[in-house]
Amino acid sequence: MVRFIFWRLARTFLAIWALASAVFLLSRHDLDTALRLALPDAASQTGAGNALLPGGEQAALQALRHRFGLDLPVFYVSRGPASPAGIRPWHWHGRRNQYHQWLRALTHGDLGTSFRTGETVAGRLRHALAFTLPLTGSAAVLAVLGALALAQRLATAPWWQRPLRAVLVAVHGLPLFVVALVLLLVFANPDVLDWLPTYGFGQANEMSTSPGQRLADAFLHLILPVSALVITAVPELTLQLTAALQQELGTAYATTARAKGLSEAAVVRHHALRNALLPTLAQIAEFLPALVAGAVVVEVVFALPGMGRLLAEASAARDYPVLIGGLLLTGAVRLLALLLADLCYFWADPRIRWQS
Amino acid sequence: MGWLGLLVLVAAVAPLLPLPYPPGTPDLAHMAVPPFSAARHWLGTDPQGRDVLSILVHGTRTAVLLTLPAALLAALVGGLAGAAAGFWGNTARASFSYWLMGAGGMWWGLQLPIPALGLALVLVGGILAVIANSQSRPLPTWPLPVNALVMGTATALDTIPRLIVVVALVASIGLSATGLLAVLVLTTWPPMARLVRAQMLRVRQLPFVEAARAAGLSERQVWFRHALPHALHPLRTALPLSIAGLLGLESTLSFLGIGLPPEVASWGRLLATVRIEPSAWWALLFPSLLLTLSILSLNTLSRLSISRT
Questions:
Q1: Based on the number of CB atoms within 10 Å of its own CB, is B75 exposed (0-12), middle (13-18) or buried (19 or more)?
Q2: CATH 1.10.3720.10 in chain B, residue ranges
């Protein structure tokens, strides 16, 4: 069994490496735009005031290239310029290339430096994670708990099953950003219902004095984003789990449990649930990295300074080191989710261990 | 169904419709006008003064022209790759001459030193294949791990959520409709390939495939003419769902301001303008209504095709 998990993790690891490498190599195609976008920020940071003059721009670009190590060749081999004979010869660069240095830094845990702000990528990611983890973490826990509770009720087929199911199917079709926008415009709009604050998470923290107040403020700011994530995540989980539960309730052991005189709710809770959980566990493993992606949308809508907004802004500004760092981090979450799911499989169904 | 037909129709005739205002140009006299007001903007204007109705119509065109080809191409790529992986597994064997031809072609394509050598390899491979065919004496074959190749690529693309991959790839390719189309196809085909592969694993055990083999057809003919049409069945339900997913993805991307160039009208971009002017409910209501209706009817379509099979 350990071997099985090991191979799965190794394959996922390989996939993440391949993807990050592909993005890394692709990003080097179009470097000039990225550098030009990064130029004003980075130049003002180094104090080169005349960088925006046309004459100084070339020099500033060259300096930037040198600083980020971009004047080295991209990969181990490259094509030279076309010779008169029409043949473009291959060059071997050895270890002095961007890819090798990137990989080596990566194995030492160094994700590189952001093009735009000059901070280390790891630092920016850590700063953003401090906002994102409470958001996605609480959303994940709430969504799973909500789906469990709802599915258990739905499986016993009460009278409100049909309308609720229709609502769930309808919500399932909505894109996340529509849900988030509707929530934003209804609950945080001075014209409609001015219940909750929208923007300014983070700045308000410094102004309020006591830690209790700060916590309450953070809580108020997180209500809407978390509920947007939960609303989009719950239908998928619930519909799947309900279907699995209903199938389990039709089996012989469920009938036996009923014949013992147990109530329907007890049959669901103590007998059927554990067997119905297996596919849902796989779904949750898919769902943890997806929450990071969902955070992209939610954080842009609610203007939270987290991972997702960092990624979206990095994409618009071509800040490749940050993008690749985000990609790798999502991959790490994925690895973790796979490991957790496998462990949960053993807990839910001990037979799996013996079979393999 | 009728709704989807209407959308495609609108997309097809969008440039011909007699709209009072073009989609891209701002009407600076009427910014953020509510709908049904005097100024001939039937559905109002967004906070930058662009006509909502014409953005909606042209946004429909963008959405249809982007998602339909993306979904169809992804179905084609995913179907063929998945079917090949399911049918041959890792046991496919390519003849020696084909290996020679492939290696020679690669040599020539990469322009390694002496490109003529690559061409010569292709030529030798071709001649060998012709000779082997005419004398009906098979050449030695080497295994080609189709299954491992396809599933490995699919896993690599599947591991990280689609939105993150698209965001990262789009940044490195740049803003353009064709680039976005390529990225969408690249990230959409793996689930389809998985579906078709699973179905193909079942189909290839069925008696009629064996019968076709016994009738003396070549492996490729059995695969393409007999097994493939059955293996493609699950795509009938998967295609509407993937179009719905692409529709949501496309509007999410334009909402975030990545993907399409800013002058292209799209639903997502219209929705993004709501954040500038929160009281402009019409810029939120109409596009999200369109989006929701289309996604829901696509979902219904896929459920219908389940119940019909």
A1: buried
A2: 2-90+147-308
